């Protein structure tokens, strides 16, 4: 199952005007449970912080997290990097149009990207499961953080992230763009410590409420659209019915502590 064709189609629809792009970000913020957890952690990190901060979104994609962080403080300098040139060009164009002068984007391979002691916060959302040389990237992150800086990661866990254990052999995995099914909660912390981080903590998200919400808001719609583009027309009606339930489930996932879950939030400090 491939996400990229769906993401590209949605991007083409919502990228026609800045208003639609902002609406797209808002929809992603509401639908994607990982965004709820990431924004919660960023707000906690930002408390008491000053104006002179440098932040890296490592794997910036559509730029929704750069948009959120750059809205928090116009003096923070935010850099987004991604391996896809078309997304970098797209983001540079959009943020230029809306006048976000504290933001820039560049093409970069995280396996090679290293800016010694440049950043106060590095964000990595749904990236590490795509990179085979993860330890090398963690070392680059550590070298690129200032003393006391924080790395914030969202990634699938090995407890069945993205329903990886439910796929059939004929159609392949729902996450066949990943190089690993997910991280063990202890494994990723050990790798981070081995890369030089002095303190790590991790917790599960996408517990029972989140797993149900993810299937309603992401998995089933993507399966339908992959089956036929006709379902694009039906998506608004589908979400009209399921959206309230997804919101409630997301809220429960954020406020509850989960003994296990299909996602991980990991924080590491230099």
Description:
With 270 residues, the protein is of the alpha/beta class. The chain has a single domain, classed as Rossmann fold (3-Layer(aba) Sandwich), CATH 3.40.50. 47% of the residues lie in helices and 18% in strands. The chain is built from nine helices and seven strands. It has helices at 4-14, 18-31, 33-46, 64-72, 85-97, 134-144, 185-194, 208-227, 231-255; strands at 54-58, 77-82, 103-107, 119-125, 145-156, 199-205, 263-269. Helix 6 links the parallel strand 4 and strand 5. Helix 8 (208-227) packs antiparallel against helix 9.
Instruction: Quote the average pLDDT.
Output: 90
* Lateral arrangement of strands in the main beta sheet: 3-2-1-4-5-7-6
β-strand number: 7
What shape does the CA trace take?
A: globular
What's the number of helices? 9
Encode the helix/strand succession as letters.
HHHEHEHEEHEHEHHE
CATH superfamily: Vaccinia Virus protein VP39
The parts where pLDDT drops under 50 for at least 5 residues are 167-174
* CATH fold type: Rossmann fold
CATH architecture, by name, is 3-Layer(aba) Sandwich
Radius of gyration: 18 Å
Strands, helices and their partners?
Layout: H1 4-14, H2 18-31, H3 33-46, E1 54-58, H4 64-72, E2 77-82, H5 85-97, E3 103-107, E4 119-125, H6 134-144, E5 145-156, H7 185-194, E6 199-205, H8 208-227, H9 231-255, E7 263-269
Parallel strand pairs: 1-2, 1-4, 2-3, 4-5
Antiparallel strand pairs: 5-7, 6-7
């Amino acid at each position: 199952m491939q996400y990229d064709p769906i993401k590209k189609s949605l991007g083409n629809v919502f990228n026609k005007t800045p208003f639609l792009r902002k609406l797209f970000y808002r929809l992603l913020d509401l639908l994607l449970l990982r965004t709820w957890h990431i924004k919660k952690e960023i707000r906690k990190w930002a408390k008491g912080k000053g104006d002179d901060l440098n932040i890296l979104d490592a794997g910036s994609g559509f730029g929704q997290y750069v948009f959120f962080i750059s809205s928090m403080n116009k003096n923070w300098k935010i850099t987004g990097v991604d391996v896809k040139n078309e997304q970098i060009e797209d983001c540079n164009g959009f943020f230029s149009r809306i006048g976000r002068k504290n933001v820039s984007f560049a093409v970069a391979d995280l396996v090679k990207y290293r800016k010694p002691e440049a950043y106060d916060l590095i964000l990595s959302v749904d990236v590490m499961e795509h990179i085979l040389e993860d330890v090398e990237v963690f070392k680059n992150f550590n070298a690129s953080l200032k003393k006391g800086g924080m790395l914030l990661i969202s990634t699938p866990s090995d407890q069945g992230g993205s329903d990886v254990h439910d796929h059939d052999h004929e159609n392949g995995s729902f996450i066949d763009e990943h190089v690993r099914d997910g991280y063990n909660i202890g494994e990723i912390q050990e790798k981070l410590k081995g890369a030089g981080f002095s303190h790590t903590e991790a917790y599960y998200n996408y517990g029972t409420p989140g797993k149900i919400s993810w299937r309603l808001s992401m998995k089933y719609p993507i399966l339908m659209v992959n089956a036929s583009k006709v379902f694009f027309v039906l998506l608004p009606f589908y979400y009209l019915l399921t959206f309230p339930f997804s919101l409630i489930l997301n809220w429960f996932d954020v406020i509850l502590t989960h003994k296990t879950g299909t996602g991980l939030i990991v924080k590491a400090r230099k």
